[in-house]
Structures are given as C-alpha cells and as structure tokens.
Amino acid sequence: xxxxxxxxxxxxxxxxxxxxxxxxxxxxxxxxxxxxxxxxxxxxxxxxxxxxxxxxxxxxxxxxxxxxxxxxxxxxxxxxxxxxxxxxxxxxxxxxxxxxxxxxxxxxxxxxxxxxxxxxxxxxxxxxxxxxxxxxxxxxxxxxxxxxxxxxxxxxxxxxxxxxxxxxxxxxxxxxxxxxxxxxxxxxxxxxxxxxxxxxxxxxxxxxxxxxxxxxxxxxxxxxxxxxxxxxxxxxxxxxxxxxxxxxxxxxxxxxxxxxxxxxxxxxxxxxxxxxxxxxxxxxxxxxxxxxxxxxxxxxxxxxxxxxxxxxxxxxxxxxxxxxxxxxxxxxxxxxxxxxxxxxxxx
Length: 347
Ligand SMILES: NC(=O)c1ccc[n+]([C@@H]2O[C@H](COP(=O)([O-])OP(=O)(O)OC[C@H]3O[C@@H](n4cnc5c(N)ncnc54)[C@H](O)[C@@H]3O)[C@@H](O)[C@H]2O)c1
Ligand SMILES: [Zn+2]
Ligand SMILES: [Zn+2]
Prior knowledge:
Largest sheet: 7 strands, mixed
Bound molecules: nicotinamide-adenine-dinucleotide, zinc ion
Helix content: 25-40%
Strand content: 15-25%
C-alpha cells in the first residue's frame, strides 16, 4: 500500500510500504476512506516529538471500513464503517477504567499511539490494536466528512477546553486561538449554556469562522486584547478562558482574561516552559487545567452530530486525494495564507 512516511525533521514521502496485517487477536485492519492532518503532525515534522522515528507512517485521525478482524474481536466485522480516534484504549488498565485512556498503560504508556508509537492513518490502511474498546461505529446518518473531525479536534476542544474549564449556563467564555481546536470549543460551549463566547485570534479569517461557529464576539489578538475582552464583561474578566494555541504569550493572555474564581483551560501543546504570574494569580482563586484528550466524549459528540446539533462538517475547508497528500500538508502548514481549517484526504 501507499502511506505518508516520516523520514526525519522536514522529510516526508508518499511511499510504498507493506500492507498492515493482524498481529494480535484484538486487532482489526481498517481501509482508510477519509483522513486528515493535525497541528501535531506539523510538530512531528519539525522534529519536536522525539518518539516519532524515521520510517513511521503519520496520522492519528481516520474514518474507514473494517477489512479484516482478529480472532478475539467481537464488536466489529468486515464491512463496518468506523471512526478511528486519536486515542487507543485497552479498556482494562487502571487509567482506562477511570475513563482516562489518554494514559492507557497497556498500549505504550500513552493512549496516543497512531502516527507516534505505531504506524498511523495517513495511509491506505491501518492496523488498529484493541479494536473492540477503541473504535466507534459511525451511524448511517453521519457522513465520513462529519465523523472525521471527531477523531481528535472536536473531542479535544470539548473535553480539554469546555469540560475541563467547567463551562456552565450564563458563563462568559474567551477562546484564545480559533483554529480547529479552538473552533471546536466554540462549537460546543453552547451545549453548556455559555451566554457569551469571545474568540481571540491574530487571523481575521479565523475570527470570521469563529462567528460562524457560534462566537458572539471576535477580538483581534494584540496589545489591547485583554482590555477589549474585559470591557465586554463587568470588568472582572471571563468565567472560563480556553487557551488553544500553545504559546507562552497566549497562555499568559488566557490567564489575564479570567475573573476571580474562574478557570483557565489550557489545550495548547507547549514546546517550551511557560512563566505565569503566580504572585498575582494565587489570590484570584483561579483554577488551571491541562491535559491530553481522552476522546471519551466521542459517543456524545456522534449523537449530537447525527441530530444536527453540531455541524462538524464545517471544519473541512480543503479536499485532496491521497496522491496529493504533499499538497494537503503544504496548504495545512500555511493555513492562514490559504484560508484553511482542516483538510480532508480521501483515496
Ligand atoms: N491537549 C490535547 O490533547 C491536544 C490535542 C490536539 C491539539 N492540541 C493543540 O491545540 C492547539 C490548537 O490546535 P489547532 O489544530 O487548532 O491549531 P491551529 O494552528 O489550527 O490553530 C491555532 C490558532 O491560533 C491562532 N494564533 C496564533 N498566534 C496567536 C496569538 N498570539 N494570539 C491568538 N491567536 C493566535 C492562529 O491564527 C490559529 O487560528 C495546538 O497547540 C495543538 O497542538 C492539543
Ligand atoms: Zn491531533
Ligand atoms: Zn488501558
């Protein structure tokens, strides 16, 4: 088969590689019908993720069709249309049992294994370990292009942003960074009754998208952003500030926006240490949350997509066939110049 293979920092190629085969009885093989690229793949290509080594097939998001089933798999059969999420779970370890498969100890010490510790989903097919406890059947009424964004960005914005930030009815929420993840948070704050959702971004296209996704206000990031957002509240700041960029300054912005007793929910992946004004924050009774997504909200989100409550298909702005995956990467890597959010890659 063909697959997008990492060959060290800055190097990737659409290579011929061996077809995946069943290794463990709990595996299935999935033919990829739809895949996409995550910001994390760009981090990997920069060489930021040391665990990813030369020869690894990238990608951790897919919708596909089961083509082979291991002897121990009971929940899936050949022909099933499935969502392959970013997180794999054994279902048995202590972390899986407490609903935190992001730290499944059985699959490699961390639930994110596709395109990281094992070959991933930017390929014609993928081997899926622990299929029974990891895969989701896609309801007939949900299209591939709606389901694909539930593999990672939507659950991330929802779980690590909205749920961790404890958004509640009447809250004012600021979302710093309106990329796929920030927009996913914006798209799902309404589920918890936020009354005002303020998007903060440097990119005008993203701010326009944020309004389309349900933000009530859009603020251009810059020197006056904190004052602008605070002026939209009673002066004290927002109840929940969600950070969805991953830079020291954007986390500091989120911390500056939150009111006493509020929550800063950090979603961004940070590459360097961040200094926060703890000497000012401690007396504000601020909660700071962070974490790797568990993707355990997928069943809820699938239901909401199926019922039309979450228009997840809005996330896809560009489409490419597999043989043009290099172009897909180029467009996604320069998303601002290309007015891109998520790219959809199909056979
Ligand atoms: N915690 C997790 O489990 C998890 C999972 C997936 C992704 N992430 C992380 O979430 C973050 C967002 O992911 P994404 O795919 O939406 O990325 P993205 O690059 O598409 O979006 C980032 C957005 O931030 C904006 N931005 C850049 N600089 C800014 C600034 N100074 N102020 C305000 N906005 C600014 C950009 O214009 C863009 O719209 C990344 O750090 C990603 O690695 C975390
Ligand atoms: Zn991802
Ligand atoms: Zn586990």
